[in-house]
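Morning - zinc ion inputs below, output right after.
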Amino acid sequence: MKSYTKELWFEVPTRRAFINITSQVEQCLRESGIQEGLLLCNAMHITASVFINDDESGLHYDYEQWLERLAPHEPVSQYRHNGYEDNADAHMKRQIMGREVVVAITKGKLHFGTWERIFYGEFDGRRRKRVLVKIIGE
Ligand code: ZN
């Protein structure tokens, strides 16, 4: 069995963003040379997500609105977590959007459903953060 490990770095200039990282993950898969197996991709921070969905700007706007209704950033004083920090909402947004994805690898490709793409969801940006890619298989 082969294994491959890589960390991808991101520095998002805004507090929140959704970034399509599919091509970077596909590059990892090519580097690994693995044809059949499983790929794990996870955020290495508790205020960021990795998730799979459609690359459609309307949907991303809708996510932003929905997450802001569920866990509004302001007023930051509404959260007990916000003593030294102001990112309690980011922890909650990350929780609901998820930590990681697992994708099957078939014939050297990510075995996606229709329109599936991998996204990095940033909820407390403006600093360097990491995503782990781990691939195992043959
Ligand atoms: Zn925090």
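Note: The radius of gyration is 16 Å.

O.
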